[in-house]
Design goal:
The chain has 144 residues and is an all-alpha fold. It is built from 7 helices and no strands. 31% of the residues are buried.
């Protein structure tokens, strides 16, 4: 991928998420790709980190790639108190679902429950409401 003109972070995040998904599930994470993801997030502001992480994580959740979701979540800023606008609040809220899944993957069931307890079903992007709620319900079933 060679950027000949500036590209918005969302398509870049989708590209990286797709490349991550193409890695073998049981193979170690490719160091070059890991570095590219790190470099990508270093260049972003807090809001862009949140929205692009959500795009990447949503792709990874489709294939239930928990360890990779956990890796990407490391780049999300502390989600407490960064809600500068409604879109950031919505994205942070939606990330709670995948953070709960990450906690479940590391056998931290109580943290997963706590994260889902903070999720607000009314604070979900209308365009992807059904997808987000389906993910939420699947993780609730895993906890129960």
């Amino acid at each position: 991928f060679v950027e000949t003109e500036p590209v918005h972070p969302i398509p870049k995040a989708r590209r990286l998420g797709t490349l991550i998904l193409e890695t073998e599930p049981n193979a170690p994470f490719d160091e070059l790709l890991m570095q590219e993801v790190s470099t990508f997030f270093e260049q972003l502001n807090e809001d862009d980190k949140i929205v692009t992480a959500l795009k990447m994580i949503r792709l990874l959740y489709i294939k239930r790639r928990a360890s990779l979701i956990t890796f990407v979540l490391k780049f999300v800023p502390n989600i407490t108190g960064v809600e500068k606008n409604i879109w950031t609040r919505i994205n942070i809220n939606q990330l709670r679902i995948y953070r709960a899944y990450s906690y479940l993957s590391t056998n931290e069931k109580e943290k997963a429950k706590k994260e889902l307890d903070q999720f607000d079903s009314f604070l979900v992007n209308n365009f992807i409401h059904n997808i987000i709620m389906s993910d939420y319900n699947s993780i609730v079933k895993l906890i129960d």
